[in-house]
């Protein structure tokens, strides 16, 4: 019989799994490894998780549950959409390795459904038809995840010294390119290797996305044929 001292709490296990993903990437998240972190075998986790996929589902659910959507107000739809996307981004930013899990799992939990419902509500209020709103909402989610995963100099499950070394190596390789052939890449080497300001990077990303959606709505953007 399992000792009370080793009785495992599901929320604690999810916290452990998310910490492993942050530190070492998703490949480190297994039932065996999570069990080891608590001094038990993988079998001890089966009461909560049968396999790795269920742990990943739980990590996605945890991230989505931490999103605090702003309450509806009297601002224009695009301002409110900006706030909703920024709230999602705030949660995903510290968890680059796990952020991509939400893209295929957002409709699988009450928290994810609440985010989807609010986004679709705002897009419907802007005048988008159901199919358009669904496509745009999906693209919004993917864009937020992409911002996190592709942050210059970010998204690495490494200790700061290793991260810094990787950034410096990338910058050096870009600066070493032939300037006559890639003048703009060479000039932007530092910015391409690492963000000067994370906050500016993310704010600009949300601004660009919302501006693009607003442009589609007003007819300022015509899809290429």
Would you give an account of this structure?
With 225 residues, the chain is mostly helical. The protein folds into 3 domains: 4-50, Arc Repressor Mutant, subunit A, CATH 1.10.10; 64-151 and 195-218; 160-193, no CATH class. The protein has 11 helices and no strands. α4 (77-92) packs antiparallel against α6 and α4 packs parallel to α7 (130-149). The longest helix has 21 residues, at 198-218. The model is unreliable at 1-5 (pLDDT under 50).
Topology:
Layout: H1 10-24, H2 31-37, H3 52-65, H4 77-92, H5 96-99, H6 110-125, H7 130-149, H8 160-175, H9 183-187, H10 189-193, H11 198-218
The backbone outline, from C-alpha atoms, is flat
- Based on CA atoms alone, the radius of gyration comes out at 21 Å
- Summed up, the domain count is 3
Query: Largest sheet at a glance?
Result: none
Q: How many extended strands? A: 0
Strand content: under 5%
- Put simply, the count of helices is 11
């Amino acid at each position: 019989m399992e000792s009370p001292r080793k009785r495992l709490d599901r929320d604690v296990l999810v916290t452990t799994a998310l910490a492993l993903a942050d530190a070492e990437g998703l490949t480190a998240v297994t039932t065996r490894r999570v069990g080891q972190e608590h001094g038990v075998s993988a079998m001890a986790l089966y009461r909560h998780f049968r396999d790795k996929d269920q742990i990943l589902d739980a990590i996605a659910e945890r991230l989505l549950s931490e999103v605090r959507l702003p309450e509806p107000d009297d601002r224009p739809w695009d301002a409110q959409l900006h706030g909703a996307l920024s709230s999602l981004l705030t949660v995903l930013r510290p968890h680059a390795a796990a952020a991509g899990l939400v893209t295929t799992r957002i409709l699988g939990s009450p928290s994810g459904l609440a985010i989807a419902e609010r986004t679709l509500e705002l897009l419907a209020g802007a005048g988008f038809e159901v199919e358009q709103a669904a496509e745009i909402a999906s693209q919004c989610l993917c864009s937020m995840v992409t911002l996190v995963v592709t942050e210059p100099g970010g998204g690495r499950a490494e200790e700061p010294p290793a991260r810094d070394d990787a950034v410096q190596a990338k910058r050096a390789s870009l600066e070493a390119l032939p300037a006559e052939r890639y003048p703009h890449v060479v000039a932007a080497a530092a910015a391409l290797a690492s963000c000067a300001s994370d906050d500016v990077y993310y704010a600009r990303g949300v601004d660009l996305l919302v501006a693009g959606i607003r442009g589609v709505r007003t007819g300022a953007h015509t899809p290429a044929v």
